[in-house]
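Q: Can I see a sequence and its folded structure?
A: Here is a first one.
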Amino acid sequence: MRARPALRGALVAALALGVLTGCSADDGAAEAEYAGDYSSHPPLSVVGYPSTGTLGITQQVVWRIADGQVGELADLGDPGKDRGTTQKTAENWIAAFRKGAGGKVTAEFYDEGSYRQTVVLYLHGTGQIKEIYILPAHVDGKGVFRVSMDEPDPGRATAVAPWVPKKPGELGSTMIR
């Protein structure tokens, strides 16, 4: 019978923690989803200086590509862009990078990440490189980071800019154009 008081104590402590930290049920669900994603994907190697927001959105982009989740990947796109363009870009990224995103990936974050950030993804298993742009956005009244998804042409989606190094860290995570 001692299990019930212990269980009740744990529930009261969790509720109190939620009230004290201002967590909503939505925050808890998002944290649980993140923990599930984090534990079911290979760890992302990081070079450079991401902010918490730019790192989080980059992880989600890699995970959605690896899992082939077109709609969920498109949901990470800039809300100010045309949904059709964002959806087609998500399809292109998954078709081109899904295999590589499922393995070892290094994300190199260029320049300072509190506002917007260029991120280069190195997909080690396939030798592919993908450059993405992370930017701030407002979604449901909250400031969040989103990814620019304006590559409805498959050739453009897989093109590598001439400035991008072949290996992470070659430019010291500072863009030189």
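Q: Show me another, different protein.
A: A second, unrelated one:
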Amino acid sequence: MQLREMELDLVRILQKDARISTEDLGKMLQVPAKEIEEAVVKLEKANVLVRYSSIVDWSKVEGHEGVTAMIDVKVAPKRGVGFDEVAHRIYRYKEVKSVYLMSGAYDLSVTVEGRSMHEVATFVSEKLSTLDSVLSTTTHFQLKKYKHDGTIFGDHGEDRRIVVSP
């Protein structure tokens, strides 16, 4: 889909902060708020804007810290469907937060969240590694989050965000 310059700028701004009002977006982009509303609807219908989300620092919520693991997965691709079939099977599990096809030493990068290391390990041993196409896995447990999607985490006494110009 070809986007106009204003629509590209709108997507870049919303990617950084989706809570900005249409009035403020209109001022920033020097177009009427109505045009912003129409552009957002168009981008949502075209699945360019797929979802709006918040970044939560769960380490600050007592009893909800959880565990995140990044799993390198080597796969035997199937003729005619490549990696798509096994990726589809993997991303349907509720524990899986993301799946990416990668270049390099492994084929898929899978991010999994659980309540404990044991829960993640059980997912890997009983669900992920038992899939026919999966040849091997390497699990990396996230120990500390420093930065995620441009937001710096930590005890800085304030919300510190990185602002990147488009």
